Automatic annotation (TrEMBL):
Residues 29-154 form the AIP/AIPL N-terminal FKBP-type PPIase domain. This is AIP/AIPL N-terminal FKBP-type PPIase domain-containing protein. The keyword Cytoplasm applies. It is found in: Cytoplasm.
Length: 316
């Protein structure tokens, strides 16, 4: 089944590849779309840019949460459950795709999607950083162009029907979630489930970063404990009983080192990075890269131009 028609939006065309079931879902703020997508260039080869199936996870969008690529909410709102549709979108709608894709790729790689961003809008970050870290996305950033999105809608859930991820929470909900995530992380450390504990701490850190980013735009005061130092406290410190359990866990130290680096704790960051290289020689290359970036950031911060001491990885 292929039916092509124009949506009531300038610069958008839709082709239904497989019909869906029932009526169009009734949406409200907080409704969640779950879907797979494929992004292609509008060229002769229809070059694939991203494919959520290859990434191994479906995409989710919360209605009313100001997703950077606003047109996606419009596209999904035109679909029925089970429908597969192809959308052609003019460049007026795709200018932010490079930043959106960068974040999604980082998540799929197990990295913090906010890493390296300043507390600014997405467009501000685009101008601050000349590279997304991905060559194909840099091209889209330099030259916005029409894109094709192929989407398959799995389900639409009301706000009360699912547990919301922290990124979809309100400021007040994030504030309440941070100590809970911290406690859950501590409990997992005591059970020696380090990877799961690190994920909980990282989620708490992301909550705090989002809260800090909203400080200048909110009328409700943010508690004093939401400070850069909180990032280290929550992502690094565990109960005394659990401290010894981290001794043989290089990944936990690596995450702690990055947290220290993020809040300018140079000495602590370098010590943890050195410990990582000692515990796990296979991570030496990653540590060397982080140390180099740390040195560059510290020089910029202090306006200095010299090679910092202890910038090399000690022999293991």
């Amino acid at each position: 089944m292929e039916e092509t028609y124009l949506l009531n939006v300038e610069g958008v065309k839709k082709k239904i590849l497989h019909g869906g079931q029932g009526q169009l879902p009734k949406l409200q703020d907080g409704s969640k779309f779950t879907f797979h997508f494929q992004t292609l260039k509008d060229d002769f080869e229809r070059t694939v840019i991203d494919d959520s199936r290859e990434a191994g996870m479906p995409m989710e969008i919360i209605v009313g949460k100001m997703f950077k690529l606003e047109i996606w909410e419009t596209l999904l709102s035109s679909m029925r459950i089970g429908e597969v549709a192809e959308f052609w979108c003019d460049a007026i709608h795709t200018g932010m795709y490079a930043l959106v894709s960068r974040g999604m790729r980082r998540i799929a790689e197990g990295r913090d999607p906010l890493e390296g961003q300043k507390h600014r809008c997405g467009m501000g970050n685009m101008f601050d950083y000349h590279s997304t870290g991905y060559e194909d996305l840099d091209e889209l950033q330099r030259t916005p162009q029409p894109l094709i999105f192929i989407m398959e809608l799995f389900r639409v859930e009301d706000p009360s029907a699912y547990k919301r991820d922290t990124w979809a929470m309100s400021k007040e909900e994030k504030l309440a979630a941070v100590p809970v995530l911290h406690s859950e992380g501590n409990r997992l450390v005591l059970r020696r489930e380090f990877a799961q504990a690190a994920a909980k701490y990282q989620e708490a850190v992301i909550c705090l970063r989002n809260l800090q980013a909203k400080v200048s735009s909110t009328s409700t005061p943010i508690p004093a404990w939401v400070t850069p130092h909180s990032l280290v406290v929550l992502s690094c410190r565990t109960p005394t009983e659990g401290s010894s359990l981290l001794a043989d866990n290089a990944k936990a130290y690596f995450k702690r080192a990055k947290a220290h680096a993020a809040v300018w704790n140079e000495r602590e960051a370098r010590e943890d990075f050195q410990r990582v290289a000692h515990l796990d020689p296979s991570m030496a290359a990653a540590v060397k890269k982080e140390l180099k970036q740390l040195g560059e950031r510290m020089r910029k911060k202090h306006g200095l131009h010299f090679t910092p001491l202890n910038s090399q990885i000690s022999p293991v």
